Structure of NAD(P)/FAD-dependent oxidoreductase:
Amino acid sequence: MSVSSTSTRPDHEVVVIGAGPGGIAAGAKLKKAGITDFVILDRSDAPGGTWQHYTYPGISVDTPVLFYQYTFEPDPNWPRLFPSGAELQAYHLRVARKYGLDAHFRVNTEVVREVWDDREHCWRLHLADGTVLTARFVISGIGAFVTPKDAPLPGLDTFEGFIQRPGRWDNSFDHRGKKVAIVGTGASAVQIIAAIAPEVQRLTVFQRTPPWCLPRPNVLLWPIRPLLYVPGLVTMVRRGALSVLDIASRRIMHWQPSDQVTVPAMQRFDRGARILYRAYLFAMVRNRQARRGLMPSYGPLTKRPTANSRFLPSFNRDNVELVTEAVDHFTERGVVSASGREVEADMVIMATGHEMYSEPMDYRIGQIVGRDGFDLAAFWREHGMQAYDSCSVPGVPNRFMLSGPYSWYAIDWHEIVERGADHAVHAITLATQRKATMMEVRKDVHDAFHAEQYRAVSKVLPYFNTVNKHVNTYYRNSHGDFPFPLLGGVFNAEHRARNFPADVYEYSTVPVGELAGERAG
């Protein structure tokens, strides 16, 4: 798309990319701030994000729902402590409708490239249909798990049965009474295995690394529902839990560890946890061979823990088999293990992970191009994941991330994306007050912030890179970094997002002459 000789007003003041929990939070907060010229794009055919995409059997949340909802819109009517995916999707749609966001959604719209226009001070968003949408500001509400990806196993395209993926589940295929193989035992696979084991003729579970799977009592909430209606009570419970996390977050910043002390302590913690888990496995799984295969060789904090009370008992069923050797390849009829054994299947489930927002190699060169040709993917690949306050990067003006590097400061995903939205809305408000058309975080402020966070998080890196270095985990990216926690205090992080000083950003405005062609806004 060529640039016109006269600058024009962008199509929208703000474009939010992603209509999941983050995009909905951003939309609600933009409206509250009086910003109404925005659109929320999503590549799917409806808003909801994870809870719209993921509809596989048994899907539900692993976090107690009292902590897994918007802080500005608590719902006292949840039926159970761990609601289903459909219930969570309905909740997010209700919130979007209440805050008048339906008119702002633009679905079936995928952004494939973002390019900053240096002259017109706007983003040119290249869409999958070949069109270009322009925006003064961009808020990226893309979640942590970006796109499902298959393990690079040969022959998958030759398999003549049905292939399912957790993030693209086709509910039109009836798996009941079928021979099913599932590759992977991550969080989604744990829920799927527990749900379909009683329904299929045979279920073969190909496992690379056994998960830590804890019990999850999904109790009914109606006995305490009157308490959930008490104004402020749920908020008080949440803040109380966050107060404990706040103390730990602040103390880590001042902790001066020694590897001679911390590594042995971490090893003792892992040994103790494995002793307890082995006893739990003994109580839950009767088959000795399955018990041995389900016993993790790593610590419980190395990978994302799972919680499901029906997963482990599934391996007591005669129709469920655990295979702990690697998958070698696929054939027309099924899956072949490393020893050459072929397992025939009518359906194969590829639960083998996602592209991750924390992995620099999962960002494509040329996908996000900022000022003077600054390539965000190239920067992160060379220097590691980093952003000021987890939201903005020098060289990438007018663009904010709701869940950027080092953003996990609290318990709940909603709290994380709300904090990112607070930062973005505060920043846009500051620019508007100054009549600025471009704002960019100062490099010295960004670098100082990242250095402080990196030093703090590095104190726990030995747990991943020394004690549990033998385990593949997305908590440790290709740089050997752990770019997840935002340390320094929960309440400090929340306050900073809403009140950071204006001078952490630099501002500029398109010259008046170049704006002569703007239409009335």
Summary: Residues 259-284 form the longest helix (26 residues). The chain has a mean pLDDT of 94. The chain is about 30% helix and 15% strand. The first strand starts at residue 12 and ends at 17.
